[in-house]
Amino acid sequence: LRRGRRPRTCFPRYTDDMLRLGHIEYSNCFPVHALLLDREPPPGIEVRTAVPSVLNAELAAGRVDVSPSSSIEFARHADRYRLFPDLAIGAHGAVQSILFETRVAPEALTGREVALPTASATSVVLLRILLEKRLGVRPRYRWFDQGSVSDPFAGGADGALFIGDVALRRRAPAGHRVYDLGEEWTAWTGLPFVFALWQTSAPAAQDAELARLHALLLESRAYFEANADALAARHAERFGLDAGVLVRYWRSLRYDLDAAAIEGVLHYYALAAELGAVPAVPALRWITLRR
Predict the structure, then answer these.
(1) Phi, psi of 109 (to 5 degrees)
(2) Is 118:63 a contact under the CB 8 Å cutoff?
(3) Which terminus of the chain has fewer Cβ atoms in its 10 Å neighbourhood, N or C?
(4) pLDDT tens per residue, range 151-209
(5) At what angle do helices 207-239 and 30-38 cross, to 10 degrees?
(6) How many CB atoms lie within 10 A of CB 172?
(7) 0.85 exceeded by pTM
């Protein structure tokens, strides 16, 4: 695609037919939506931006039609949602933006306070799995707003989870230990971890429209892959990151959903079910891509 041209994929122009697409405000979502954000969405697409937990609620309430929502949300509502094939936000190893920071050894956290960000869903359950299932510790959890100026450690926490661009920008105080949850998961399981999946509550009657959106998002991802350096230079300021840091971060992530990533998702769901965080391991349900 040459800069300035609209994507070829067409959608209805009428307001009542707008397809509402959720967009995670963190930089990790930008590569799949790059074409829509670097230019503008095509007619018929409205982009709504929020943190992951808010998009989860918006999708559940029917205020967005499609969203890159927390992976855990599908397992919690598998009877309502379907997935877009080959689209995800994940990592095989270090993710850099899902960081658990402690001032004591993680093995010593039983009975101690661990602060969890209200913006997160999937990463909160991942942290619980790593602490409770892998290490066998039982902390006391509390929520905190990572967008506020308050420091969870100043409030008495011995550990805190930071996600997204907040985690990328954070500098831990001297003496604190920092653990990358993507790296910890892969070291333990040998599998990739998937943090977000493109999900929809739209009925099968809309699959032709959803298939067009799917094609547009694949085109958008390819646009990112061909223009990552230029995109980082143009958009680094919006994320408060250096362009070089941003493009290295983007290139460390995975935006496809291959067999290994699917295995990682299902293994995560199985462990989450053991914790009682989801009712059961769901069957993965997909939109139909016949166009």
Answers:
(1) -85, -5
(2) no
(3) C
(4) 899 999 999 999 999 999 999 999 999 999 999 999 999 999 999 999 999 999 999 99
(5) 90
(6) 15
(7) yes
